[in-house]
Amino acid sequence: MVGELRSVVIDCPDPRGLAGFYGELLGRSVVYDSDDWVTLGGGPGQSRVAFQLAPDLLEPRWPDPERPQQVHLDVTVEDIEEAEPKVLALGATRLSGGGKDFRVYADPAGHPFCLCWDN
C-alpha cells in the first residue's frame, strides 16, 4: 500500500449546496468551509467527501459518452423504497439505468450516484 484514501473530491458550481445535499444523504457534517472548498468529515477510518468550486463545469449526462460521469458514489441503503423518496426530496433526480440491486440518480449538480442494496 502506498497510501490511504483521504478524500473523494467532486467539482461543482456550488460547493456549499452540494455539500448540504451529500451531508444529508450520508449523515456527515461540514468540517471545513470556504468560498471554493467544502469538506464533509467521516468517522474514524472513513474518508472525507469534499466539494471544489468549478464554475464552468459542464454537468455529466448519464449515459451520454460525450458528457461522461467522471466520478460517482455508491451509497448503500437498507430499503430502496424508503430511501428513494428521501433522496428525491433532497434534490436528486432519478436517471435511467440500474439493476436488480441498484438505482441511478443525479445529485443537484448533475453528478450520477447510485443507491445500492443487498437482495
- The main sheet orders its strands as 1-4-3-2
Mean pLDDT: 91
Rg over CA atoms = 14 Å
Number of domains: 2
Number of E-type strands: 8
Q: Beta fraction of the residues?
A: 25-35%
For the record, what is the CATH homologous superfamily label of the largest domain? 2,3-Dihydroxybiphenyl 1,2-Dioxygenase, domain 1
First CA to last CA: what distance?
Answer: 32 Å
Question: What does the largest sheet look like?
Answer: 4 strands, mixed
> Structural class, from helix and strand content?
alpha/beta
User: According to CATH, what is the class of the largest domain?
Assistant: Alpha Beta
Provide the low-confidence segments as ranges: none
* Helicity range: 10-25%
Overall spatial form: globular
Task: Please give a structural write-up.
With 119 residues, the chain is α/β, with parallel strands linked by helices. It folds into 2 domains: 1-57, 2,3-Dihydroxybiphenyl 1,2-Dioxygenase, domain 1 (Roll); 58-119, Roll (2,3-Dihydroxybiphenyl 1,2-Dioxygenase, domain 1). The chain is built from 2 helices and 8 strands; from the N terminus they run E-H-E-E-E-E-H-E-E-E. The chain has helices at 15-26, 80-89, and strands at 7-12, 30-33, 37-40, 48-53, 73-76, 93-99, 102-106, 112-116. The strands form 2 sheets. A 4-stranded mixed beta sheet has the order 1-4-3-2, with helices on one face. The chain is globular and about 35 Å long. The model has no long low-confidence stretch (mean pLDDT 91).
